Every structure is written in C-alpha cells, then in structure tokens.
C-alpha cells in the first residue's frame, strides 16, 4: 500500500472509530473528576434579610465535585444539587418543600463562605462551611 493510501486508510479508520464511539459517549454521563474538596462538610446558614429562620446547620457531602445532602447525619428532608469545581467555586440549589435556595461561594482548604437567596420568601444571607474530620 502506498504512503498516500496508508494515510487515507488511517484517516478513514480513525473517523470510523470516532463515529462508532459517538453513541457510547452520548449514552453515558460524563465522569466528573474528584476535587480537592471531596468529603464531608458542615454548613451553617445565617439569614441576614427576610423572615426566614435565623440559623440552620446542614451536613453536606462533596463526591467527585458534586454536592449532595448527607442523609446519614440529619433528619431534615431536603435535596441538594450542585458542584464544587477544582478551584473551590461553589454553586448549589437546595430544595425543601416549595422553598428553593440558590447559593454560591468559595471553598479554600478546609473551610469556605458564600451567600444564598430564597427569592420566593424574600430571604437572603451568608453561609460558612467547615470540612468535617479535618
């Protein structure tokens, strides 16, 4: 086979392999790499504006960069979904009943801070987190 023929064969083969992998890639969720912030966290939430309860504490867990509610440690029923990127930037939504809290902030090392809003009830405030077991 000539050099030109070999190059054409390799390109065609790579395109075929790439196209064959597309359905598999689309069918599976992308893996999120573990972050330096994976682990158990205690989050204290303080209301600064509005009539929401003044202080709450939550146990959350970061797994492969995804924020989850740590049900093992709390009787509260709510869901948490969001993420922490490798730089420690936090974006999370917490839902309990009809309430939907949006929070953003920054983790650094074993602690972090940020802000939150609950627009439907006109509440907002700050949060502070500390890594448990640190």
Give a verbal description of the structure.
- The chain is an alpha+beta fold and 134 residues long.
- The chain folds into two domains: 1-30; 39-131, Quinohemoprotein amine dehydrogenase alpha subunit, domain 2 (Lipocalin, Beta Barrel).
- 19% of the residues lie in helices and 49% in strands.
- The chain is built from one helix and eight strands.
- It has one helix at 3-27; strands spanning 39-49, 55-63, 66-69, 79-84, 89-96, 99-108, 111-118, 123-131.
- The chain has an eight-stranded antiparallel barrel.
- A hairpin with a 2-residue loop joins β2 and β3 (66-69).
- Residues 6-30 have low confidence and may be disordered.
Give a topology summary.
Blueprint: H1 3-27, E1 39-49, E2 55-63, E3 66-69, E4 79-84, E5 89-96, E6 99-108, E7 111-118, E8 123-131
Antiparallel strand pairs: 1-2, 1-8, 2-3, 3-4, 4-5, 5-6, 6-7, 7-8
Extended strand count? 8
Q: Calculate the terminal CA-CA distance, rounded to whole Å.
A: 63 Å
Helix share, percent: 10-25%
Number of helices: 1
CATH architecture of the largest domain: Beta Barrel
In this structure, how is the largest beta sheet organized?
8 strands, antiparallel, barrel
Q: CATH homologous superfamily of the largest domain - what is it?
A: Quinohemoprotein amine dehydrogenase alpha subunit, domain 2
What value does the Rg take, in angstroms?
22 Å
Any low-confidence stretches, pLDDT <50, length ≥5? Answer: 6-30
